[in-house]
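ARCHIVE CARD
CATEGORY: sequence design from structure
SOURCE FIELD: tokenized fold
FIELD CONTENT:
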């Protein structure tokens, strides 16, 4: 079996991604498709509808987790509960597609779950060491992870949503965000390292002027040298270093 990642370029904004004919061909020929849902990769549904298959299996993570379409934050892979559920579903579907290898797939799912332990332990340690620590963000990329760590995200949702969708936040929200730095309310500034604009740059400068460490998080996996487990663990470590020692990590 061959595996193809549709969105794998760390320099591409997934929110503005447009599927090429090559992507459409790859998805159309796939026996198993895994997609995020929550409107994040709606182009997948369009491709699947254009090339229907009675045997294709589709795992929509939104549906798998029982999330409503009104779910505001689509970055589901940052939640520590998401990928074990996805891995289990993938193992089940692969076992149906290749029954002779079912035992192998089951073992791999178990191994994958175990490989997430360092990340979940790091989240628990962060929660224990810095309960309720205040952070500011640009986008909700890492919000699920920050929530799991018990951190207090000061940035209001409308601001995050506007930045995520490429809309200028209101002057009131921008002023509020700036105040988190000038009034030293935020202990760390978490921003989307892959998608920055003049507003993000100005906030980075403001945070640095006020000696608030910054952490760049990634919407798609940074390359080279990372896999999902090490990527997530590195993000938690960067936040921990920011809170514990005032260390900034702008790039993994």
């Amino acid at each position: 079996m061959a595996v193809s990642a549709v969105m794998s370029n760390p320099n591409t904004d997934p929110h503005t991604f447009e599927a090429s004919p090559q992507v459409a061909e790859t998805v159309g020929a796939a026996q198993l498709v895994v997609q995020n849902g929550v409107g994040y990769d709606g182009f997948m549904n369009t491709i699947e509808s254009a090339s229907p298959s009675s045997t294709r299996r589709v795992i929509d993570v939104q549906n798998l987790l029982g999330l409503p379409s009104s779910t505001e934050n689509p970055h589901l892979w940052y939640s520590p509960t998401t990928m074990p559920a996805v891995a289990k579903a993938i193992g089940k579907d692969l076992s149906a597609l290749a029954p002779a290898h079912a035992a192998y797939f089951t073992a791999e799912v178990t191994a994958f779950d175990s490989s997430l332990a360092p990340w979940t332990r790091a989240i628990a340690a962060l929660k224990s060491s810095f309960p309720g620590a205040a952070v500011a963000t640009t986008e909700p990329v890492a919000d699920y992870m920050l929530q799991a760590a018990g951190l207090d995200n000061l940035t209001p949702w409308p601001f995050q949503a506007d930045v995520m969708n490429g809309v200028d936040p209101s002057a009131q929200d921008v002023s509020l965000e700036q105040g988190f730095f000038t009034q030293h309310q935020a202990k760390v500034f978490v921003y989307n390292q892959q998608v920055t604009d003049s507003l993000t740059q100005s906030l980075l400068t403001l945070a640095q002027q006020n000696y608030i460490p910054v952490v760049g998080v990634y919407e798609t996996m940074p390359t080279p040298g990372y896999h999902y487990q090490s990527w997530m663990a590195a993000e938690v470590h960067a936040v921990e270093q920011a809170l514990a020692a005032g260390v900034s990590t702008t790039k993994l």
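CARD ANNOTATION: The radius of gyration is 19 Å. The chain has a mean pLDDT of 93.
SHELF: design records, drawer C
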